[in-house]
Design a protein that fits this description.
This protein has 287 residues and is α+β, with helices and mostly antiparallel strands. The chain has eight helices and ten strands.
């Protein structure tokens, strides 16, 4: 008779669920909300423990498994505008991980899962977790192409933006067609939907923008905020149907693309969304 340790069962499956959520988020180009992923993973770990309680054995039924998986996705990605797509990606990653576990079982000759399909092994926990981490790396590489936008070399990346002690993380699209530059320094300027950086602005400034809604008028009424007045400027741009236009630009203190530091960056602010589906919030040039 096999003895199952509850703490090992919970910890192992919670960690693996976290890796699955993290992988599916990277594939879909979603913001990496690690705390939400952890909460959803805890739900998955508790579920694996619950199905071994005799009174709750009904939870092992397939509909219950699907329901819990969907709840995990909702907890992790409830702000996403593409929840259905995220669910499908999560299930695809989970299936791929299951195949990886099966391959490890065949190669190692030691079972890594119980008859109910729950991940568990009497092997050293470190070995099992290292195997899981290996599967995570392989899945990230294999599925990485689904996180890119084919045609023109477009791809998604994570950007961290900060002003003072306020920091946010957003998803950006690398767009070779974005050639916007600062006419003074010649530096490339990313473009963000202004609502995407709302959290970085004081309530008074956001109220002023809502009242004016126009870059030049906004700057004209910014005199009462001298500190912020130095951060804003206008940048000329051209677009389809617009021969000469002006965008409001904001200088931020912190700018990281996939963890690479780049401080003192100008960020152009678009009054309209830069993505029709909400999958990303910024446009950055290929450079």
């Amino acid at each position: 008779m096999q003895v199952i340790y509850v703490d090992t069962l919970f910890l192992l499956n919670a960690i693996i669920d976290y890796f699955l959520l993290l992988t599916s988020a990277k594939i879909a180009g979603e913001p990496l909300k690690r705390l939400r992923f952890a909460i959803a993973a805890v739900l998955g770990g508790l579920y694996t423990v619950a199905i071994f309680i005799p009174e709750l054995s009904f939870l092992s039924a397939v509909p219950c498994r699907f329901a819990v998986a969907i709840w995990m996705v909702l907890l992790a990605f409830w702000e996403s505008s593409r929840l259905l797509r995220q669910c499908l990606i999560f299930f695809a990653v989970a299936c791929g991980f299951g195949g990886g576990v099966y391959a490890i079982e065949l190669l190692g000759g030691v079972p890594l899962a119980l008859g109910s399909g729950v991940l568990y092994s009497e092997m050293d926990l470190k070995i099992v977790l290292l195997s899981g981490a290996g599967c995570y790396v392989v899945l990230s590489v294999v599925f990485a192409r689904f996180g890119t936008h084919h045609g023109g070399g477009h791809q998604l990346c994570q950007v961290v933006i900060g002003i003072g002690d306020k920091v946010i993380q957003r998803t950006a699209l690398v767009d070779t067609g974005n050639t916007l530059t600062d006419p003074i320094s010649g530096q490339a300027v990313p473009v963000a939907h202004i609502e995407a950086i709302k959290e970085l602005l004081p309530a008074t400034l956001w109220q002023l923008w809502e009242e004016t809604g126009e870059p030049t008028e906004f700057l004209a009424q910014l005199g009462q905020e001298p500190e912020w007045q130095r951060r804003f400027q206008l940048i000329p741009y051209r677009a389809v149907g617009i021969e000469r236009g002006m965008l409001l630009a904001l200088r931020v203190d912190k700018w990281l693309i996939d963890g690479k530091q780049d401080s003192g960056r100008l960020l152009a602010l678009s009054p309209t969304p830069v993505s029709d589906g909400g999958a990303y919030h910024l446009l950055i040039g290929a450079k």
